[in-house]
Write a structure and sequence with these properties.
By secondary structure, the protein is α+β, with helices and mostly antiparallel strands. The chain has helices spanning 25-33, 41-52, 69-79, 104-113, and strands spanning 89-94, 97-102. The protein has a single domain, classed as Winged helix-like DNA-binding domain superfamily/Winged helix DNA-binding domain (Arc Repressor Mutant, subunit A, Orthogonal Bundle), CATH 1.10.10.10.
């Protein structure tokens, strides 16, 4: 199983009713950091859901989709290049999936922001 030791930043709160995409950055980077072989978006969704316990609107299923608002926000970390545009991660396609790996810049950022 993948390791995840989420220690909340002073501005992050466990079990919030709803998370914003920026509030997922530190927990996502911590999860990627703790899994040096890389993680898929699906693994990140599962582990962030388990660690952060989203509730309320975040757990509503999107109309016409099979995923929740929360899982879509995690997916948006990739589609908006939220982590990659700062050079905190590298995302490499592997078949139909992709693998997230943290960079030295990402390691520095997560250490200073945590």
């Amino acid at each position: 199983m993948y390791q995840f030791d989420y220690t909340p930043h002073k501005d992050y709160h466990i079990a919030m009713a709803e998370y914003s995409e920026p509030e997922l950055v530190i927990p996502a980077l911590q999860f990627i950091r703790n899994n040096p072989n890389g993680v898929t978006t699906t693994e990140m969704i599962g582990n962030l859901t388990d660690a952060l316990h989203p509730s309320g609107h975040d757990m509503d299923i999107l109309r016409g989709r099979n995923d929740t608002h929360f899982s879509q926000k995690v997916r948006n970390l990739k589609s908006h290049n939220t982590l990659a545009k700062h050079n905190w991660v590298r995302y490499r396609r592997v078949g139909r999936n992709g693998i997230w790996k943290i960079t030295p810049a990402g390691l520095r950022y997560v250490e200073t922001a945590s």
